[in-house]
Design a protein that fits this description.
Blueprint (H helix, E strand, L loop, with lengths): L11 H15 L4 E5 L2 H19 L5 E3 L9 H7 L4 H5 L7 H15 L16 H7 L17 H9 L4 E5 H9 L4
Parallel strand pairs: 1-3, 2-3
Bound molecules: iron/sulfur cluster.
The site of iron/sulfur cluster has 11 residues, from helix 3 and helix 7.
């Protein structure tokens, strides 16, 4: 494990990437980078890791790991955009027609594979009130049903296994450690 703390612009990121990635790739191991802020995760994803891969000619893949709450529940979304009685029960107050239209669009895009269910990858900001009706939550999740194989959160988690470098955050890494790690 490496813990890096230094002023902005000193070169922490490139230093720890140089120290870890070639060794990990050589030994078929994963590198998990844990950051404190979303801004730093995005910097690694969009700038530091692509730059490092380009200048070193290393062949590795990377991905960002997000918490469950960044993904929608496909089951809730299908109910929320439906026209049956179950739909209304999901909202604390009567939803606006524009909210239902947005949910229907999200449902279609998810079904067509044109949206991955990640809140951050939807082209416009999603209102908190809408998101709360469809967010993936552990306590309401029953992933044993075959119909839930297309679950956005489960799919995102299985993608982590296919990548060499995982950009996470402290809370995810600590939660994972609390569960025994791995
Ligand atoms: S597995 Fe859980 S979170 Fe995923 S779609 Fe099914 S109920 Fe929702």
């Amino acid at each position: 494990m490496i813990v890096a703390e230094a002023g902005t612009g000193i070169g922490k990121s490139l230093s720890y990437l140089m120290a870890t990635i070639p060794v990990a790739v050589q030994n078929n191991r994963k590198v998990v980078i844990s950051t404190a802020t979303v801004a730093l995760q995005e910097q690694l994803l969009n700038k530091d890791l692509p730059l490092f891969r380009r200048i070193t000619d290393q062949n590795f893949s990377f991905i960002i790991a997000k918490g469950r709450q960044r993904y929608c529940c496909a089951e809730k979304l299908s109910v929320a955009c439906g026209a049956d009685g179950g739909q209304m029960a999901m909202f604390e107050t009567k939803p606006k027609a524009s909210d239902i239209a947005q949910l229907q669009l999200m449902y279609e895009k998810l079904a067509q594979g044109k949206w991955d269910g990640d809140r951050d990858s939807w082209p416009k900001p999603i209102d908190d009130a809408i998101w709360q009706t469809i967010v993936s939550e552990k306590h309401s999740c029953n992933n044993s049903l075959p119909a839930h194989r297309g679950c956005p959160f489960s799919r995102a988690r299985s993608e982590l296994d296919k990548n060499d470098v995982i950009i996470a955050n402290h809370s995810l890494v600590m939660a994972d450690a609390d569960l025994g790690g791995g």
